[in-house]
# Entry
Amino acid sequence: MNVYDQTTRNRRNAWLLFLGFFAVMYVLGWVISAYYGMGDFGIILILALALVYSMISYYLGSLMILGVNGAKEAKKEEYPYLYNTVEGLSIAAGLPMPKVYVMDDPSPNAFATGRDPAHSSVAVTTGLLGRLNRLELEGVIAHELSHIKNYDIRFTMLVIAMVGAIGLLAGFASRMFWHGGGRRDKNSGAIMIIAVVVAILAPLFAHLVKLAISRKREYMADATGALLTRYPKGLADALKKIAQAEPMKSADQTSAPLYISNPFGRNAISGLFSTHPPIEDRIKRLESM
# Structure
């Protein structure tokens, strides 16, 4: 699959993802509304509030992500080489220049965020700037720009927004079970059982979707980034250094899937549920190009 096919598929999948999450939110809204006897008005109200929350997260999510990860906007005068690298590769990729941010953390890592190429940002750690050489840095920046070019950032922002909305509704449904307070009739018991089942399954569904899209997008961004620099070894060598680094101190757990590599490290158990594919496999694929 080439870059253009991947971009088209990401746009299509974004709509399918939206419909899937909307269906889950509808079920959660129906359960909550039925338990409190609010009828159709309750479902509409709950869905409207969830969608408003999702839209706020979607449009302001990148600013919040940059903030909670301690990213500060990089001035060209302070980081001329980083700025020029992002600018040059953006021109080569046919992208508008994203905003550039730096995180004060000794562990080498980076991520891209935003809702589309015109509203995108690239953030790197001070550890990345200090440990990588020119070709390795270019490989990492090309990888992150590929996420922007492939519209992975839009897809990811939708996931973060929808997962947050589902988490709120599922949490409310679970509190109904523990604290009660709703109507008491012959159907309340059945509704409560449905509420418990949905409250358990909804977050699990959201997490599985996150796993599926994150792993696939990393492989594609590696390949697209290597195509952009024409030097796969640069990114492969950068991943080797990143794999050997210590966990990050400034990273936020919610935005961990955005990073080029898991910022909290890994172990045999967490690897099964990681949003990132095995870094060794990624390195092998790059070295075979």
Notes: Strands lie at 71-73, 99-103, 110-116, 119-125. Residues 267-273 have pLDDT under 50 and may be disordered.
